[in-house]
Every structure is written in structure tokens, then in C-alpha cells.
């Protein structure tokens, strides 16, 4: 019989829905958001490798991983450690989900969700700026396949809801296909927002 340490680790759950203000505020931190993103995109990793990736001290990284673990975003992966000194971590979920409509009637949850989403937007902008700076060295084929833009449309509420549903279905299709690394693939980011213009 195999020991617990030899059992294969469970696959991450597809998504976690966040509603607790403290849990949302745990994500409203740039380093924690970066660490969670690395574990979700690149898979499990030891503290040392994560510290190198984010250019922070291992102790700092361990502290923030502990905060993420407290709220269930990451879990330890001891089965991957080569010795007792090495601490490995994995993402507990593939994505984070929230429902703005369900959060706005509670002042504490609304404030926490706004702080969390502001951090998401800042994180996304930072990544987009890095990609822009890297275009000069990006292979021509990958640059040609890239896209960006925005548009305005005069839509009824029903049309707006239909458009959003089609976007979500499109993203789900390609997210399902690209969940695992295959030969010739690289991580591709697709960012979009659909909202009534203020």
C-alpha cells in the first residue's frame, strides 16, 4: 500500500467564488497576486524558485504564501519536496470568481471587492506594459497572431447580456483547450472587460 506522500496530488478545482471581505483583501496585494498567478500558470513550485521569479527574499515569499493558504488559495505540496527543508506549494484553484451584484449591498464586501478588483486591473495593466516592451524581441509569427483593441456599441440590455455570454463561451472554449502544456504552446493572456460606459 502506498503512503500518503506517494499519492498523486488532486487536480485543482476549476474555480473558487470569493465573498468574504478578508479573503478578497488577501488578494488585494501585488506580490500575493503575482505568486498565485505563477502557481496557476506554471504549476507547483518551491519557495526558492518563486522567490527567484519575483526577486524577493524567501522569507517574504513564505509569509505571503502563508496568507494565501490561510484563505484557501494555495496549499502545500509536500509530496514534491526532495528533502524536509524544501517547501513546495500549488494553487488550490484554476480561477477566482466573484459576483459584483451579490457584493454591492454589503458595505464591507463592496469595499473589499473594489480593492481586490483594482489590484486585478493594476496587475493586468502591468503585464500588458511588459508585453508591449517585449514586442521588439517577440517572434514575428507570435506578434502577428497577437491582438488588442476596444470598441463601442449601442446595445439594449438584452443584446449586452447576449454579447457577454458569447464572450464568456469563447473564452471557456479556448481555456479548456489550453489548460495543459503541449508541444509548441506558450502561455497566452486574453484580457477583456464589458461594461456600460459611465
TrEMBL record:
Pfam families: HTH_20 (PF12840)
Transmembrane segments: none
UniProt-annotated stretches for the region Disordered: 1-21
SUPFAM superfamilies listed in its UniProt record: Winged helix' DNA-binding domain
Signal peptide per UniProt: none
Domain HTH arsR-type residues, every copy: 22-106
Protein name, entry field: Winged helix-turn-helix domain-containing protein
Organism: Leifsonia stereocauli
